[in-house]
Amino acid sequence: MTTVAEPLNQKIFSVREIITLSSQLVENLGIVHVEAEILSIKEVQGKYTILDIGDGKSGETYDTSMQAWVYDLKLRRQIVEQKLSPGESVLLKGTLSIFRKRGVLTLRVLEITRTGLGNLLLEFERLKRFYAERGYFSQERKKNVPKFVSSVGIITSISSGIVLADFYYLWRVLYPRAKIIVRDCLMQGKDSAQVVAGSIEFFNSTFPVDVILIMRGGGSISDLWTFNEKDVVEAIYRSRTPVVTAIGHEADITLSDLVADLRAPTPTGAASLILPDRQKLMAVLRGKILSLLRFDGVEPKARELTHLDQVLAERADKFLSNIRKKLEGLDKALSTLNPDLYLAERKQKLNGLLYKFYDMIFLALKNKLSKLLNCSQILLKIDLKHRMSNIRESVLIKYSRLNVVIEKIRDIREELYQLSSKFFSMSPLEPLQRGFALMVDETGRPVDFGSLEVNQKVKALFKDGEVFAKILEKHERNIIGRAS
Fold first, then answer.
1. 338 φ, ψ (degrees, to nearest 5)
2. In the chain, what percentage of residues exceed pLDDT 90?
3. Which band of pLDDT confidence, cut at 50, 70 and 90, is reported for residue 338?
4. Spatial separation of the C-alpha atoms in residues 397 and 374, rounded to whole Å
5. Which of 16, 201, 232, 470 has a CA between 20 and 30 Å from the CA of residue 130?
6. Of the residues 216, 243, 276, the one at which a domain ends
7. Domain for residue 388, yes or no?
8. Of 221, 311, 211, whose CA–CA distance to 261 is shortest?
9. Are 264 and 253 in contact (CB under 8 A)?
């Protein structure tokens, strides 16, 4: 156990102690101003808004970031009205706190001011001008996607199952004859740009396909920065195979989207742009067949075949709809098995509960403070000097009474001592202290000479022990029998 005076650099802390100490230091800072870039904006259940913020790094991802929580309704409306978006620089005013259970530093926002474009957006605009001047985005150099695609090379992360599920669903509906080859890639973070560029080269040389499709879910400008990297942009530009992108949401634009031969807003949109619609093809084919078979006796058969084709198409649609529902169910199940997603959701719920808890504690402390102020005002109105004088007199009276009681107890204690001395002198065991012995029978009761009989077993009690004996002879005139 360490003392308060022990130097902090020599004290051994527990995790709880170090977080508590850090929390106290952070909260003592009071109101702080933080200049940062917005990485992402999340609205949580219509109750509060979470801003992921970080320091700008030109052309790189953010190694350091934190969360800023916005509870005030006016500030949340301000974010919407001013159309604040990821990549913009803002000045935030608020208070810092640390969640005790997780040790996570957060900023509770009190004011928010836009300061301009962030470093990543400025770098994006610079790179956009750079590649545009060199003709990377020129429409003349872009390749056409084949009308009938026989194979599609997909570059995506399999862990984001809904992206593939959306594409697979429309692929089965539109044109399942096309072969699908998937490259599971790292789509964000360190080395991801090299991995994506390597996959583009793989589908150009090692495993040629008719079209390359790059798909990724939504995210912040930092999350999508891989697709603004030189390696990926150059790989798409050099690709001999047409490249189609479906990166992020429809509002998200990357350099890869601009240099690609075709950009799709969503994975399903990519499928509709790449793959032919077999139902439309069948309709065209039916029309051609009917135009060729308009002869007596042939047209009824053609109509019958057309009816059968429609029945088969309806059954296929129903079958594919069931598959879609199963895929969606599996995707939901997979998302619940994803520990990162599960922990992120639990973290958000925990953060919300903690802030509610803090508000409750603040309200409780405010009520207690109000009660204390009322009590202090009542105490100020009371004549404490007069009350203390009365209490002092009462204590003196009780003290004098207590002295009388103590004297009586002393007298009673002396009487008890004298009585105990008399009682001890009258005890049959008292002569034992002077060297005498007390004779008792086998049951422990004292015996006299008249009650003794020959061969009777007795016990002699001494001050420091006892002796067992047997009566051999018995004579008058107080002669004691010998013990065997």
1. -75, 110
2. 15
3. low
4. 34
5. 201
6. 276
7. no
8. 211
9. no
Name the amino acid, one letter, at 347.
K
Distance CA 107, CA 35 (A): 12
Q: Could you tell me which residues are beta bridge partners of residue 32?
A: 94
Distance in angstroms (rounded) separating the CA atoms of residues 421 and 174: 117
- 94 within 8 A of 110, measured Cβ to Cβ: yes
At 296 the three-state DSSP class reads coil
Place of tokens 């970031």: 65
Confidence label for 59 from pLDDT (cuts 50, 70 and 90): very low
Judgement on whether residues 172 and 262 belong to the same structural domain of the protein: yes
pTM of the predicted model as reported, rounded to 2 decimal places: 0.45
Residue among 95, 99, 129 at smallest CA distance from 27: 95
CA nearest neighbour of 86 among 254, 188, 223: 223
Q: What CATH number is attached to the domain comprising 231?
A: 3.40.50.10550
Query: In this structure, what token pair is assigned to residue 326?
Result: 């199963």
Given 276, 301, 327, the domain boundary residue is: 276
Distance between CA 343 and CA 336 in Å, rounded? Answer: 10
Mean pLDDT of the chain: 79
Q: Would you state the structure tokens that stand for residue 374, as one six-digit string?
A: 């009322």
Q: In which residue are the tokens 């002569």 written?
A: 431
Backbone phi, then psi, for 159, in 5-degree steps? -60, -30
- Residue 195 clears pLDDT 50, i.e. is over it: yes
CA distances from 325 to 166, 199, 245, 319 (A): 11, 31, 26, 10
Spatial separation of the C-alpha atoms in residues 156 and 166, rounded to whole Å: 13
Q: What integer pLDDT is reported at residue 344 of this predicted model?
A: 66
User: Domain of 267?
Assistant: 148-276
